[in-house]
Amino acid sequence: MSRSKAVPAATASESASPLITPDGELVMRTIAMPADTNANGDIFGGWLVSQMDLGGAVLARTFSRSRVVTVAIDAMTFSAPVYVGDTVTCYASLLTIGRTSIRIKVEVWVQRDPERHRRRVTAGIFTYVAINAKGKPHPVKR
Ligand SMILES: CC(C)(COP(=O)(O)OP(=O)(O)OC[C@H]1O[C@@H](n2cnc3c(N)ncnc32)[C@H](O)[C@@H]1OP(=O)(O)O)[C@@H](O)C(=O)NCCC(=O)NCCS
Question: What domains are there in the chain, each with its CATH number?
């Protein structure tokens, strides 16, 4: 039995306005694969969150200059589905730096054949804590 699934054309609400562009630095780009699907055959939200978490950590580490761990994920919104074969790109931007914590906004944009234009599908705020070799928080130099 074929696992392939017809991909619907973008609805008006899924299509990003040409005036909206990704906010932040490109930190992760990959292709959504069949192994990443949920029971409906669309891409599993948990997979997207893990890509965002990794992408946000890439930026957080440039500020901490050390390992970081994720302490909180807030304001997650899934505004449009992601399909197998979509090119998935994460953009990250710094919101705030605390004593040991770093808050990063992460957006996910996809490009889908045949349209190829980008659309934003997911966003969230990830808080990381800089940790030392013992796994304890350490101050982030500003
Ligand atoms: C993250 C961790 C090291 C923090 O340890 P802790 O002893 O609670 O440290 P603190 O209470 O000093 O908090 C450290 C920072 O995290 C922030 N923080 C703690 N809980 C938070 C929460 N729920 N939301 C947002 N920020 C939080 C604190 O405000 C503090 O920030 P600041 O130093 O900039 O003011 C510890 O909770 C931990 O190891 N958690 C597990 C992390 C993990 O496994 N993540 C998943 C895989 S990466």
Answer: 25-131 (3.10.129.10)
